[in-house]
Amino acid sequence: MNTLLTVGSVAFDQIETPYGKTDKILGGAGTFGALAASNFNITNNLVSVVGYDFPAEYLQLLKNHNVDISGIEQKEDEKTFFWAGKYHQNMNQRDTLVTELNSLANFVPKVPGHFKNPDVLMLGNLTPVVQRQVIEQMNVRPKIIAMDTMNFWMDTMLDELHKTISMVDVLLINDEETRQLSGEYFLPVAAKKVLQMGPKFVIVKKGEHGALIFSEDDVFAAPALPLDLVFDPTGAGDTFAGGFTGFLAQTMDFSFENMKNAVIVGSAMASFTVEKFGTEKIQHLTKDELFQRIELFKKLTSFELPKDVF
Amino acid sequence: MNTLLTVGSVAFDQIETPYGKTDKILGGAGTFGALAASNFNITNNLVSVVGYDFPAEYLQLLKNHNVDISGIEQKEDEKTFFWAGKYHQNMNQRDTLVTELNSLANFVPKVPGHFKNPDVLMLGNLTPVVQRQVIEQMNVRPKIIAMDTMNFWMDTMLDELHKTISMVDVLLINDEETRQLSGEYFLPVAAKKVLQMGPKFVIVKKGEHGALIFSEDDVFAAPALPLDLVFDPTGAGDTFAGGFTGFLAQTMDFSFENMKNAVIVGSAMASFTVEKFGTEKIQHLTKDELFQRIELFKKLTSFELPKDVF
């Protein structure tokens, strides 16, 4: 089986939306990514760090999804990364109420020996230095390296970020981050500048408006499914990344055509995550549900305009 | 030939964008709509009003595009509607610098006798009372009536607006207006509420994010073409409406499948309008250009995800 290695946070989230409020629940980019990727026939490896307060049942949940958790370090003297946030009616806006980095503050990823030859490497949103430390621990360069990042690293360590971006094949960022990183407003121009920084593909995430994928010669627009209710957007981007890289690890086809498929699969999975709090939906996803949702995505955008109409 | 009747402003625009500035140029919803619709093999009728200062050459331009302008009243004692606006880098935001209603202020549309049996009626964004006055002048109800509107009428004459909306088949509004009109945030729920007001189809325009079309049972997402430069967005929505209704008038197929096509055609035409100031691009559009752009729209969203991949 082909191997995906995901590096990302495994954490506690506490979430408030107009529709409800949670206690501390399982969260983190690595968690959502690995759970999404668990829908593929791949070896699904996760590198992360948690604290002494992290429940064994959450680790067991990951194991039950065939995630190899031997790369999750458990710190005996630190607590687990904790984020609390509140979403408003416009789900694109959220207030961060609490960020306790805890065990993530001084995270130096230790990649186990049997994790060092992945076919696909997914670098979740961590400091660009940590992301690079992971790349440097690989025995051979993975066939494809994807990374997530955020505006915070553009504001605070742009040079380090540029170094890491230059080493990857796929960059996943949102539209505003694409504009910030490139200094360009219009996305095709902005994406072109980002491509010149190294990646072969830039995936621009636009939340309720879907996602765009740019390569030097091509562009593809994946819609977002119009949903009656976005219950909790937490983890949607990480689920997208996990679906995207999991699909690539299984298919090992890095053509633009297959990148399109990977983006649709990621989008379909993310559309499930937002239906319930946290990982509740994605951890129980069935293949049938996923098939049906992908069919909805096809139906949503396909048209057959006859050529002889004019 | 099937007949489209468009009612909408014929006006002067003065536009400033980050890329340049115009003098008073030809504008107005009726102008953009009729020019877009002139790409179809239909009888293309326009009802509007202008002032004594409106140049004969602009009327001639419409005539040269086979627009029947006998429904354009020219007031001898009033000036033409004039709008001046300034766009910022984010082309979704604009400041209105001048609005002189002039001849449009007391516009009572007079539909010429040979205009009173259209197959398709497009009501541009005017007061809901004027829109209804047009409907009431028809000899028989058109097979399809589409209308544009805006938040201003929701703020100032909601009851009149509801009356007019209840009489039409297709409502074209943007996402924020859909939310305002329905009181619902999530678009599928909002659209469902708007459909209960009378229309069979709601088209939700999202600018750079494309458009959605909702019927009771279906939804379709048309992408917007990612453009290297939006030079001037003025008239994009009106071009969309003209392309949409012109296509429907030619094909006379009001199934959801063909509504999808109409939305794509409208989107493709609008993507030309924004490339230059005012009507400059849409008035010189060739069928070859249009074909090629529609192919781009197909390429932009089509994918062939194999079913046996999981």
Q: SSE layout and pairings?
A:
The structure is a homodimer of 310-residue chains.
Chain A: E1 3-7, E2 11-17, E3 20-21, E4 25-27, H1 29-37, E5 43-50, H2 56-64, E6 67-74, E7 82-87, E8 94-100, E9 120-123, H3 128-136, E10 144-148, H4 151-156, H5 158-165, E11 170-174, H6 175-182, H7 187-195, E12 201-205, E13 211-214, E14 219-222, H8 236-251, H9 256-273, H10 287-301
Parallel strand pairs in A: 1-5, 1-9, 2-7, 5-6, 9-10, 10-11, 11-12
Antiparallel strand pairs in A: 2-3, 2-4, 7-8, 12-13, 13-14
**Which architecture of chain A does the CATH hierarchy give at level 2?**
3-Layer(aba) Sandwich
What structural class do the secondary elements of chain A suggest? alpha/beta
The helix-strand sequence of chain A is EEEEHEHEEEEHEHHEHHEEEHHH
Low-confidence stretches of chain A: none
Q: What integer is the average pLDDT of chain A?
A: 96
Helix share bin of chain A: 25-40%
How many separate domains of chain A? Answer: 1
Q: Could you tell me which chain pair has the largest interface and how many residues each side has?
A: A-B, 46 and 47 residues
Strand order of the largest sheet of chain A: 6-5-1-9-10-11-12-13-14
What can you see in these coordinates?
Two copies of one chain form a homodimer. Chain A is α/β, with parallel strands linked by helices and about 300 residues long. Chain A has a single domain, classed as UDP-N-acetylmuramoyl-L-alanine:D-glutamate ligase, CATH 3.40.1190. Chain A is about 35% helix and about 25% strand. In chain A, the strands form two sheets. Chain A has a nine-stranded mixed β-sheet with strand order 6-5-1-9-10-11-12-13-14, with helices on both faces.
